[in-house]
Design goal:
The protein is of the alpha/beta class. It contains 14 helices and 14 strands. The strands form 5 sheets. It has a 5-stranded mixed β-sheet. A 3-stranded antiparallel β-sheet has the order 12-9-13.
């Protein structure tokens, strides 16, 4: 059924809505009126609702038609962007792909080839034959007059043109998924996938509460949580594969092609096991922090960058990182079984701090307060299920428990 939501049919939807009649759309697209009507009917069948009211005055969009049109225009913009980028690399300007004459299967083939680099694996993943994969790739390459993949002995690797095209096709596939979710929500059937990444400190209670509330009320919603280095997460955000990141917001995010929506504030505390030598010491000096190894997230993580800034602020070199990891279970185990330190939001290890198995050390980290909120692609239009989840997270933040606070002693310079 998703094949009926192809860019080919969405191109027809745009033409019918902008010209208000099947005949005018057929004339503009150089297709028979019967073919135009069939494309509209396929879209309506796939979405389960009429997209137009057929009136003597013309084809007038229904509310579902208006939603579909807005998503179709976003799909159109991705193909226009692909046209600009690929023609600069020598692609044929009149290639059918640029006129949205592509099937969902063709797009899925190219995206999977870029991910897996192996035709038999792509054929197995998509449930089609290997000759069909080869044929789909050959057809697109011949129409563009550009190679999209370099064929190695063991692996196919996307060329620069292939990478540019696949980036846009990922966005197109994401918009098609959002289209189904938006129209379904309008009809009272809230369903679809939301893909997100989250601040580690929100995993203890905030995100479980918000996600459970959404999927409890709307069983058709699926939430996928991605955990990866932040450079990978931002790449997924830009390609449309990740809907949003809920994270600490550093000033550098405001200079990317991103939309930042602050929700609350948070701060870092230094945490160690309850019996740690520093846990028994009041009014710690900044230099005390340099005596022990640390377990921290990767250098691109906001909390890690903030901690490096704090250390520079108090005149110390960056922490001596013994273990670089973001997994909560591993972090908890390392802290309890060693003299390692970490710096996290109090919410990240809330249960352990309240139980007394871990301790927030008696030292303030100056300038460690940060904004927390949503980071989205600047031009993104989140799907209806995505908006519901974001609203639930916002509500849960407003009900957030008071954080465990560290001691009042300020860090002195070493």
């Amino acid at each position: 059924m998703i094949e009926k939501l192809s860019p080919r049919n969405l191109r027809v939807l745009i033409a019918v809505q902008e010209r208000t009649s099947v005949a005018s759309a057929a004339n503009a697209l150089l297709r028979a009126p019967s073919a135009i009507s069939r494309s509209v009917q396929e879209l309506e069948l796939a979405l389960g609702t009429p997209l137009f009211d057929r009136l003597p005055a013309g084809m007038l969009p229904t509310p579902a038609g208006e939603l579909a049109y807005r998503r179709a225009k976003l799909v159109e913009s991705e193909f226009l962007a692909a046209h600009r980028a690929l023609t600069e690399l020598g692609a044929a300007r009149q290639a059918p792909l640029f006129a949205m004459l592509a099937s969902v299967r063709q797009m899925a083939v190219l995206v999977k080839l870029a991910e897996l680099g192996h035709m038999p694996s792509v054929a197995e993943a998509l449930g089609v034959s290997q000759p069909a994969i080869s044929s789909a790739l050959r057809e697109v390459e011949q129409s563009l007059k550009l190679p999209l993949f370099d064929r190695g002995l063991r692996r196919m690797v996307a060329t620069p043109a292939g990478e540019l095209l696949v980036f846009r096709l990922r966005r197109v596939l994401s918009e098609i998924g959002h289209l189904r979710a938006d129209v379904g929500s309008l009809l009272g059937d809230v369903s679809g996938r939301v893909t997100m990444s989250m601040l580690p400190s929100s995993r203890t209670w905030l995100m479980p509460q918000a996600i459970a509330n959404v999927v409890g009320r709307h069983p058709g919603v699926q939430v996928s949580v991605v955990d990866a280095p932040f450079d990978v997460l931002f790449a997924g955000l830009q390609s449309g594969e990740i809907d949003f990141i809920y994270t600490g917001i550093g000033p550098e995010y405001r200079h990317r092609d991103l939309r930042v929506e602050p929700v609350s504030q948070d701060r870092l505390v230094v945490v160690a096991r309850a019996g740690h030598p520093l846990a028994r010491k009041a009014k710690l000096k900044a230099s005390d922090l340099s005596r022990f190894p640390w377990v921290l997230r990767d250098p691109s993580a906001p909390s890690r960058q903030l901690l490096d800034h704090v250390f520079r602020r108090i005149g110390l070199d960056s922490p001596r990182v013994a273990v670089q990891a973001g997994d909560l279970g591993l972090l908890r185990g390392l802290l309890m079984q060693s003299d390692m330190l970490t710096a996290v939001s109090p919410q990240h290890l809330l249960h352990e701090l309240q139980a007394g198995t871990l301790a927030a050390l008696d030292i303030d980290l100056p300038d460690s307060v940060r904004e927390v909120g949503f980071v989205l692609r600047k031009d993104a239009q989140p799907s209806a299920p995505c908006v519901l989840l974001m609203e639930e997270i916002l509500g849960a933040e407003k009900r957030r428990l008071s954080p465990v606070r560290p001691g009042r002693a300020r860090a002195s310079r070493p």
